[in-house]
Each structure stands twice: as structure tokens, then as C-alpha cells.
Amino acid sequence: MPPAGGGETGDGDMLRAVARTATIRKATLFDSVRPSLRSFRSWLAIERPPACPAAHKAAALRCRALRLAIICRRSWRASLATALATFAVIGILYFFAAVTTEELLRPLYDPVQRTISELAIGPFGFLQTSAFVVLGLSLLALQHALARHLRHTVLSRIALVLLALCGVASFLAAAFPTNLKGAVATVAGEIHESVASIGYAGLIIAIILLSLHFRRDERWRTFFTASSSLALLGAGSSIFMGATSNTDIGGLSQRVMVIPLLLWVVLTALRLRSLPPLPQEPVAAVAEPALGRRPRDEVL
Length: 300
Description:
Blueprint: H1 6-47, H2 53-105, H3 125-149, H4 154-175, H5 187-216, H6 224-244, H7 250-274, H8 296-299
Helix pairs in contact: 2-3, 2-7, 3-4, 3-7, 4-5, 5-6, 6-7
């Protein structure tokens, strides 16, 4: 007669036998895979040698130098825009100073009847010629500074092109003196009047377009009212100048138009000086490789 609990003992022996069989099969499977793992590790050792710490340090130094170069470049761009805006203000002040000085040096000159361009003809004409040159440089300086502080839109791009055109027109006005009232017309005088008209019209249109752009730009929105007011004043006074250019108040009407336009240049340059540069991508995007680790392309 079998002892009590014999059935349970037989079942336990059977379970232990099954466990031993599974262990043997697992060991056999691992032994069959082990050569493949060894060959893979040897491939990594042969084809992908360990990274050199010196190479990692050199790469880290290159990344730091790149970050420093980016920071210096942004600082230089901001400083250049500020310097150009300052030059634009000084250039406009020089223009008014040159015109006033030459008017004082020529007592027979009547600013109510005669235009500003007529100051370039005579013994002190070099003052007005230099004023035209400095005015052109001021407009180009402002255009270059605005290009660094404006978001590029269709309006801003067209306005910046027109500002550059106004600067070139001022250079041409300096190169070709105008005709005196009542004198025989010359080719140089005709060229001067043509480029002056193009310069005035281009500057007025540029101010109007930039005013519309300022309204949509958060950084310039507070300047919209002043800019648009000067734009409307300049446009209205240009119509008045065109209607009275051949009368006895042609010089006065021209000055009424020139003052708000050049005042806009000064105020815009001063506003630009007070603005921070446009936000750039963070410099931290240039990551340094981790020292003592193998680069990703060497592991894969």
C-alpha cells in the first residue's frame, strides 16, 4: 500500500524534471547566441574604435569658439545699427547748419523766393554741395540701420529700396547743380530737378509705407502716430510746393516740405537707437559634445 502523500510527491518530481529541462534548453540557446554576440562586439572594437578624449576636447573648444563668434557678431550688428542711426541724425543737423550758414553768408539771397538748391551756385556753393552729399549718406545710413531693426515684409522692403534711391538722388543732386531762376536752362539743371523730384516723391512714399509697417510691428507701434503725421504733412506740403514752385514763395514752400521729411529722418533714427535688436535664435543651440563619451555617429 503506497505511503500517504505519494501522489503529491510524484507531481513534485515531475515539475522539477520539467524545470530542469527548461533550464537546459535556455542554456543551450544562450550558448548558440553567444558566438554572435562575441562577433558583434569584436566588430564594434575593430570598426568603431573608442572615442579619443583629445578629439572631444577639441570639438568642445570649437563649439565654444562658435558661440563666442555668434555673440560678438550680434553685438557688432547692434552697435553698427546704433552708429548708423547716430550718423543719420548728425548728417541731418549738418544739412540744416550748412543751409543756414550759407544763407547768412549771402545777404542778397532770399530764402522765400529761391530754393535750397540755388545755394550750390556761388562762392560758398561747396557748403550746399557737401550738404547734399551728407544728406545722401544719412539716408543710406538710416536705410541700412532700419534693415537691421525691421521685420522683413513687403512694405518694409519696398520702403527700404526707396530710401536707398533717395540717397542716390541726393548724390546726383550734388553732382549736377540746378538752374537759377530767370537763367538759361542747362542739362545739369534739368538733371538736378528730375532727380530732386524723384528723391522727394520716393522719400514721401517710403515714409507712408514705413508708417503702415510701424502700425503692424509691436516694437514700432508707438511711433506710428508721429510717423504717419509727418508723412501726411510732407505729402500735403509737396502738393503745395508743386502749385507754388514758379511763384515768389517757391523757396518757402520747398522749405515747408523739406522740414517735416528731414524731421522724420531724425525722429526715426532716435527711435531706432532706443530699440533693442531683433530677437535672435538662442546661442545655446550650439551644443558641446559630452567629454568621455563616444559620439552618437560612432555608436550607431
